Amino acid sequence: MRLGIGLMNTGIESTIPAEDAVLLRRIAELRDRAAFAALFDAYAPRVKSFMLRKGASLEQAEDLVQETMIAVWNKAALYAPERGGVSTWIFTIARNLRIDRLRREKASMFTDLDDYDAESGEASQDEAMGRVQEDAAVAKALAQIPAEQRELLILSYVEDLPQSEIAQRLQIPLGTVKSRMRLAYNRMRKLLETVA
Q: Which end of the chain is more exposed for a tag (fewer CB within 10 A), N or C?
């Protein structure tokens, strides 16, 4: 199934994070296609841009957008607002799908050797559990830092924006971005060290 980037103009627009959570809940509870179309229109171009910045080809980026948004549709009920915002959740899905694809592609380069007992391309249960625990720890730590610092980290790490673009987007001085990022790094490091 191929989803269209501009599904339809539904009248539902996704502009505020709280509204995104409502749209996601409608998808989870009602399988609301209009809510999904609004989320798709809001996030598909951003996920595609993220994938292209990470070095994916245009075709790979479009495939990963499709996989990400299908996962959003299928896993909407798993979203937990206390663990982070909708954008963080969606970009985490996208990042994990990209990593999984890179691992599969890398593994497939070496599978044609005779008498080689290759491991499956899927992550082991321990690796999958470790990833879930790491994601939970990061989400919990993010929830404990001030909102302006959390926003900077998401823009920097999830959307992969340079500090100069973050300053322009948020309309704050570059020096403020740098100092808030430094504070956010230090707080996150301390919070994550207590978990480890």
A: N
